[in-house]
Amino acid sequence: MAVVDSSGTVCGILAGAKTRGIQCARAGQQAFSVSPNTSYESVSGGRDFFCGLRSGGLSFFCWSATNSSSSFLPAKRVYKGSAAITDLSVGENQICAFEKKNTVIRWWRGDGTFPLAAPGVYQSLTSGRGFSCGIGNTNQVRCWGSRGSYIESTFLNVSMTSIVAGDSHVCGVTISGLLVCRGSNSSGQLNAPSGDAFEFSGLALGLNHSCAIKQPNGTVLCWGGVAGERSYSPVEGTFFESIVAGGDLTCGLITENFTVLCWKADRLNTSVTVLPLPKILPGICVSEKSSCKCGIFPDSESLCSGSGIICRSCGAPTITLFPPPPPLAAQPPTSPPPSASPSSKTSKAWLAYAIIGSIGSFLGLCAILYCVWASIFRRKKVHNSVQPTISRNENAAAANHADSSAVTMPSPFTSPSGSKSRIFRRHGSRIMRRQRSGPSSFKDRAEVFSFADLSSATKNFSLEFKLGAGSFGTVYKGKLADGREVAIKRSESNLKPKKIEEKESAFQSELAFLSRLHHKHLVGFVGYCEEKEERLLVYEYMKNGALYDHLHTRAADAGKLNSWGIRIKVLLDASRGIEYLHSYAVPPIIHRDIKSSNILLDGEWVARVSDFGLSLMGPEVEGGHISMRAAGTMGYMDPEYYGLHHLTTKSDVYGFGVVMLEVLTGRRAIFREGEGGEPLSVVDYAAPSIAGGELGRVLDPRVAPPGPREAEAVELVAYTAVHCVSLEGKDRPAMSDVVMNLESALALCEASNGSGSSNSISFVSLD
């Protein structure tokens, strides 16, 4: 069995069926099948996803389980090789398994701190948050990952036979049969009950609690969490073959009928829930009896439907015929400890008041300091002329902004149909713990230029200096008097009054945002000019132009983006810029016009996001939206925004998904297939092939076919892109998730070229 922490999803492998598919359920929902036509031998769960190892061990698949849907989309195949693997173990976001043929542990995804492989023979592989551990030939615990050294150090000179990891702690049985726990003890999860040798087996560890099966009868004892130091029996008189845990949820497989019973880690309010799962396998079906060191599980041939047997756990009781369990109602809490003396109660009460008072005072002081800080910074002018005043109720002029490439249109009053399950892990507070997008800060005051200075820099805006056009106006290359090369964007003149109002709004919008923001993956802002009717913006010059030109124009130098590694690097750079807008700007900023022509490349081929003429400040409440008419560029516009007028940060995610598909296929956002063909979107062209596992049919033929590692990288980018262009915003990933997947993909490319040290970075399950 496996538990997914974030959603309380419990999954197991169907017993007694010829095809051993995966069955899942949540409290209050009906059971549902996951990949029912494929046989699996084991499952393992993490915080937001779980994986299943196919029978034979030659491949495994993973599914996200963060959404509330009662079904999952087809999984992303993470491994397919010639060497069989076993002991599949999923941590917070890493996956590891033991490759028997080469006697090595392998990792997939993770946080970048796991090796590609660790040679040696290991057993009892287990994974937690930021670490994976195993027991080597000498019975010593070895751990890997960012927290691996700490966990390993707690087991020095302790010989173990088995270990199981929770979020931040590990418990196991020593070679002398004693139960020990190491790691974090924030909630008493290390305070294992004392017992005789080999009295405990079948460990299950959650976020802040631990449980074990007592021998010889199979009852469960738990400690930690709400229980604190005292152990307790969550389900008296019920006997279990195995138990698993995740978060504050623990589930057990009942010995009598192999059904699943779950409870929360709360000694004071122990309620149990019977999940509507069918009979679940109590172990892995193997083909050879010789592999069973401690005997064969009773009736295992029937459980394996005649195609194998189940080995008995070496710590399991020798008798498995137990009296039937009592009705599965909520069990009364165990008796409270003896009452303390009045003086003891009084002193403890005063101590509690003192602690609570201290905490309250500290929190109050923090709140005051925060208010002062917020007041100072929110009032601070960002430059000497314009402050960012665009709000969620932006005027109609900005909402209706349009030019030759960006269109504004009323939408039909129809809701987009179709939906995909959310399959991207939400990183929550981790976004604020690690700013992986590079340096950012408030920029110094913007320079103010005279119109004469900028006219001189461009030889009176000569056509030979023209670079292109954006949502605000025409862009020229210029050279300032001090020798700096810049790009100068000049608004059009001789416009109708309404267009003048729109251009003025776009100018003020872009000026406000560019003056406020500074990030290595946003276009560098130099200054502006505001004289009479003239409105000009000055940027750092991006020597290598727009991504669009390298992908689509006939004059493009196709050799510059001739590898999947550099294409993925460009996407990663741009995604980091957008992530900065969404996750680090307060309130978040919605760009509204993400497209390949707004992703510029500097002299070092570093990508930067440009053109903030349509940008808006987004809702501060997560999941909120702005209601307004759609504006943007055809082919990149979010269908939900276009159809329902709901603008969110996920609207930018959709546009970036289209850019990713452009990079993969070499096709424009909207193109014609052959002479006189009907217009076709790159989403409709590529997404069905990618979802159907035929990515090779749509890859840009100008780039050499990817090698084995590159193929996995390109596949990860493709699946990420498909989910970015989901019809409904709730089914799209956050940009922070996109960044992590692109980091994973780039690491795979670097490992393929011998320039990277690990492919073990963040994993997000995809269909």
What does this structure look like?
The longest helix is centred in the middle third of the chain and has 38 residues, at 342-379. The chain is of the alpha+beta class. The protein is elongated, with a radius of gyration of 30 Å. The chain folds into 3 domains: 2-310, 7 Propeller (Methylamine Dehydrogenase, Chain H), CATH 2.130.10; 341-380; 381-752, Transferase(Phosphotransferase), domain 1 (Orthogonal Bundle). 23% of the residues lie in helices and 25% in strands. Helix 12 crosses helix 13 (708-724). The relative contact order is 0.09. Mean pLDDT is 78; it is low at 316-349, 374-443 and 756-767. The strands form 14 sheets. The chain has a 6-stranded mixed β-sheet, sandwiched between helices. The protein has a 4-stranded antiparallel β-sheet with strand order 1-2-3-4, with no helix packed on it. The chain is built from 14 helices and 43 strands.
Category by helix and strand content:
alpha+beta
Number of helices: 14
Give the CATH topology of the largest domain. Transferase(Phosphotransferase), domain 1
Number of domains: 3
Uncertain runs:
316-349, 374-443, 756-767
CATH domain class name of the largest domain: Mainly Alpha
| Main β-sheet, spatial strand arrangement | 29-33-34-32-31-30
What global shape is seen? elongated
Distance between the termini: 22 Å
Q: In the CATH hierarchy, what is the superfamily of the largest domain?
A: Transferase(Phosphotransferase) domain 1
Which range best describes the helical content: under 10%, 10-25%, 25-40%, 40-55%, 55-70% or over 70%?
10-25%
Average predicted confidence as pLDDT: 78
Q: Judging by the overall fold, what is the CATH architecture of the largest domain?
A: Orthogonal Bundle
The whole-angstrom Rg is 30 Å
- The amount of beta strand, in percent, is 15-25%
Number of strands: 43
Largest sheet: 6 strands, mixed
